[in-house]
From TrEMBL:
Pfam families: Beta-barrel_RND_2, BSH_CusB, CzcB_C. Residues 398-458 form the CzcB-like C-terminal circularly permuted SH3-like domain. SUPFAM superfamilies: HlyD-like secretion proteins (SSF111369). Belongs to the membrane fusion protein (MFP) (TC 8.A.1) family. Keywords: Ion transport, Plasmid, Signal, Transport. Residues 316-391 form the CusB-like beta-barrel domain. It comes from Sulfitobacter sp. TCYB15. The keyword Signal applies. Transmembrane segments: none annotated. This is Efflux RND transporter periplasmic adaptor subunit. Residues 195-311 form the CusB-like barrel-sandwich hybrid domain. One of its GO terms (biological process) is copper ion export. InterPro entries: Beta-barrel_RND_2 (IPR058792), BSH_CusB (IPR058790), CzcB_C (IPR058649), MFP_Cation_Efflux (IPR051909), RND_pump_MFP (IPR006143). One of its GO terms (cellular component) is membrane.
Length: 478
């Protein structure tokens, strides 16, 4: 080799070594990689095939576009900087960044025969295609459309790096009963079946009233008042006369007293004493609380006039106003959990006894009635309540997290994870929602994997791919 040739060779080797040194400092390459790097640089400068370069070098091309945290934290910088503990941020080259765009062919990697190019589309998305490579008026290369891309234009392929950077997370559709709870305001009311009104069936004078007032608790059979009724006294005298005479009208006389509302115990006492009483005792027909007392000593009470109103409060009703949209999963017998602001820290359990067949026109709510034991009498009428109603029939349904469903108003979409970084939108029909989950009635099955975060980003990219494919079809070429 001549002296001039040796001089040229030394210059080439020096340039390669300098380039490798700079790259090693910026990229943190190990000494074991320096031999391959130097060889690659030499082969590139001497005109050898570029595909002989190591993969680490071929991937590290392009300008530095930003700097990332050396420990992989979500911190980036546009200029060189250090962490708080003195570590230098690592540079990220243009070729190392990932995006949703189809990966452009690497000029150093000639993959011939592996993928079939159908046509070339305009780089700006215009409806202009070409069967052969060409450039537009601004010198931009037309982009190739491959056969496998055209078959699934709405799908998106995302590299692992992009998946990690954008925070894409997935979840599996599960088949299980949907645990749904409906919350509604409620109020305590009396059980209508346990309220009694005490009145007379004949005109009478109230001779005496027992020490019973509104709010008093009485027992069944307890005397409430003493009264004198000419009709009752006359019927009692007739009954006594028939008993003494032994005639066959005794049963009729006894029935007349019963029709006038005389208690059976009083009639039996008349039959035993063979004497008609002047005063008749008015008894409580049931145990409970006196809600109203209208009886006053000395008053004249006409037949049918209310003297007392008594309610049994051992069981009360709780009325809950449930929104119209939440009625679908409710049924008689469903469990209900109730709390009261007036009884903090306590929880009561009951069952739905009745769902009223009417929706309020103003509030668009339906009334649900719940039976609630009240043996201690602490639940008072008109107390406010917070009601939680369990809904559903227990049948398993396919469900996914709420965040995986994109609702555009006229359609609902989920992004399916097809594997190997490929995602595709899927129209679904949704049902009930509860506890952060959504029922899927059509579209996906148990075990399908769907995206739960970054769904809008992937959906927008898939729609863009589909639109470009429709615009850049081969029929649109000039």
């Amino acid at each position: 080799m001549s002296a001039f040739g040796k001089l040229v060779l030394i210059a080439v080797v020096g340039s390669a070594a300098g380039w490798v040194g700079l790259a090693a400092g910026g990229k943190g390459w190990t000494p074991a990689m320096l031999t391959d790097v130097a060889q690659t640089q030499l082969t590139a400068l001497l005109g050898r095939r570029a595909d002989a370069m190591p993969a680490e070098i071929r991937s590290a091309m392009g300008p530095i576009i930003y700097y990332r945290h050396p420990d992989g934290l979500a911190e980036w910088s546009a200029v060189p900087t250090d962490t708080v503990d003195g570590k230098a941020f690592l540079p990220v080259l243009a070729s190392e960044d990932v995006s949703f765009d189809p990966e452009a062919p690497n000029p150093l990697e000639a993959k011939i025969g592996e993928r079939t190019v159908l046509y070339y589309r305009h780089p700006m998305g215009l409806p202009d295609t070409s069967p052969v490579p060409k450039q537009d008026s601004m010198g931009m290369d037309y982009l190739p459309v491959f056969a496998d891309e055209a078959k699934d234009a709405g799908s998106v392929t995302v590299s692992p790096g992009k998946l990690q950077r954008t925070g894409v997370r997935t979840s599996v559709a599960v088949l299980k009963p949907m645990a749904m709870t409906v919350r509604a305001p409620g109020i305590v009311a009396l059980d209508e079946r346990r309220v009694s009104v005490i009145s007379l069936r004949a005109d009478a004078f109230i001779e005496e009233v027992e020490d019973v007032t509104t709010g008093s608790i009485v027992e069944a059979g307890e005397p409430l008042a003493m009264l004198y009724s000419p009709d009752i006294v006359s019927a009692a005298a007739q009954y006594v006369s028939d008993l003494r005479s032994g005639e066959g009208r005794v049963e009729g006389s006894r029935q007349r007293l019963a029709n006038l509302g005389v208690p059976v115990s009083v009639i039996d006492k008349i039959a035993a004493d063979r004497r008609a009483p002047v005063q008749i005792s008015l008894m409580a027909p049931r145990s409970g609380v006196v809600l109203e007392r209208m009886a006053v000593e000395g008053m004249m009470s006409e037949a049918g006039e209310t003297l007392f109103r008594i309610a049994d409060t051992s069981v009360v009703w709780v009325f809950a106003d449930v929104p119209e949209s939440a009625l679908m999963g409710l049924a008689d017998g469903n469990a209900a959990t109730i709390t009261f602001p007036g009884l903090p820290g306590e929880t009561f359990s009951g069952l739905i006894d009745k769902i009223y067949p009417e929706v309020d026109m103003q509030t668009r709510t339906a009334r649900v009635r719940i039976d609630l034991p009240n043996t201690e009498g602490r639940l008072l009428v008109n107390m406010f309540a917070d009601v939680a109603l369990a809904t559903g029939d227990g049948a398993p349904v396919v469900q996914v997290p709420e965040t995986s469903v994109i609702d555009t108003g006229d359609r609902q979409v989920v992004i399916r994870d097809m594997g190997e970084g490929k995602f595709a939108p899927q129209d679904v029909v949704v049902g009930r929602q509860a506890s952060g989950m959504v029922e899927i009635r059509e579209g996906i099955s148990e075990g399908d994997r769907v995206v739960t975060t970054s769904t809008f980003l992937i959906d927008a990219e898939s729609n863009l791919n589909a639109a470009l494919a429709a615009l850049a079809s081969p029929e649109a070429s000039e």
